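Box 3.1 A note on notation
Throughout this textbook, protein chains are presented in two layers. The first layer is the amino acid sequence; the second is a token string describing backbone geometry. Keep the layers aligned when reading.
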Amino acid sequence: MFGVVFPNRSFPLDISTFAQIDTFHWVLDMNHFVGEEYDSIREVCIFLLNNFTLPPDKALAVYIQSPGSHFLFCGAVMVSRPSAVLSLPWPEPGSNAAQLQLTAPEVPPLSAKIGVSVEDLAALPSLDVAAEKKIERLALKVGENLFNFMQSFCGVDGSKLVVPMDILDRWFKKFQERAKRDPEYLKGFAL
């Protein structure tokens, strides 16, 4: 039906690696795959296998769950998009970003999980949600980088922070130079 690959971390895994909850739901226990380092897995590639076709109004939705949190939608594949590389923005353990509960509600998850379910395409959130979250994370990381840079040059004047007038120019120049020297530098901001 489907398979997954964790880029640079695994060989292709087929549906038999997942525990089938019912006819339309599967779960991969990340403890069996990477243990407590689940949050180091930042992407998954999911694909439909050649001999399987979904009805045009259905999709395979992918969700992630950190220990103690609810499932969070990451993206989906369908007949018109038979494969996708999805970002895995793991929720903080114990957070209640309620989305979908694939296991019994009274049983708290003890490990991180990736859930896959067959769902109505029309009922799914926009498939651009993952891209929007990636852009948001990128903006937050760049902002944090700027703040840390400014903080190293600031002084205090009463209740105000004082920074040199050219601080933004200096930060941007340093940012651009580092990105030119190290192509992997900007990738760190995207994850």
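Residues 97-101 have pLDDT under 50 and may be disordered. The first helix runs from residue 30 to 33.
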